[in-house]
Amino acid sequence: MNHGGQKRDVDSWKRTLFWICLLVAVGIVVITYVDTHSGLVKDIPKGWLDVLKAALVLLIGGIISALLERRLFRVSVDKLGPQHSTTIRYVARLLLFLTVVVAVLTAFGAGLPSVVFGGAFVTVVVGLAGQTVLANIIGGIWLIFFRPFRIGDSIGLVAWQFPMLMPSFPHESLRPMYYGTVQDINLVYTEIQNGDGYLQVIPNGLIAQSFVENRSREASHRVRMRFDVPYEIEPNTFTETLKHALSAEFPDPLNATPEVLIADIYPTAYSVVVMVISMQKEDHVRHKVLGHCICIMQNMKTHEELNLETNLSKLS
User: Fold this and answer.
1) Residues 113 and 33 in one domain
2) pLDDT over 60 (residue 92)
3) Contacts of 279 (CB under 8 A, 6+ apart)
4) Are 234 and 297 contacting, i.e. CB atoms less than 8 angstroms apart?
5) Residues 189 and 117 in one domain
6) What SS3 class is residue 129?
């Protein structure tokens, strides 16, 4: 079975290389024929011929890129794993992109030495320096070589372009973070799949400037939440009871007990801040904390009602 699979891989590679060589040869023949300015193209203006050559280079470059995407990149995932595969894919895409750009500039009449070393290349680079595409390409290089996260990591992003979101009173401010699992880093975009199963495509330049929270490595983290409690619930009893319940619910290996503090007071209620150390996700922690709060408040209200009924019966 393995020998059969290897033979199919070799045959597929042979076909891919054959088509790439054929495309390159066809491109060279057509461009050489166009440069002769004879036959069918002798009456076509030179400017139009340059556009024709540039379009041909783009077409052939796109087809070759698609062939490599289908063969080289799939094999690299199977053999090298997702992280090394991503690096190879990005470098291959970058080299193909630069090759096509230089070929297109050469097709417009700029000689290769002048494109690479001369003023034409400098002019192109300076002209593109402030453009989004180049910024995203440079951002992709930064992500590939400095690796703030790896393929398969679960991350959260906070971009500086988006301000802090202020939710409804009395909750505290929250980071406008976007969560997901990294799927791929291509030439311009990073693909992240969110918890709903949707694929998010984010520009590399934006991620390179963002606050990145890597959640792929399990570790204890603090969850902070704030809510209001009516004055009918006695503060000291409520905070001590909640703290005892959370200490049993969230035991911490570093002996960091949960904190339950009164943060502020209002005309009809007081504000409580809860800080818990846990390895669980924030939503799960909030669910459990609020569940304990509801049970404690209900029990305290029931106890107060019973005391009130007892006192009234004694008076009567």
Assistant:
1) yes
2) yes
3) 218, 219, 220, 221
4) no
5) no
6) coil
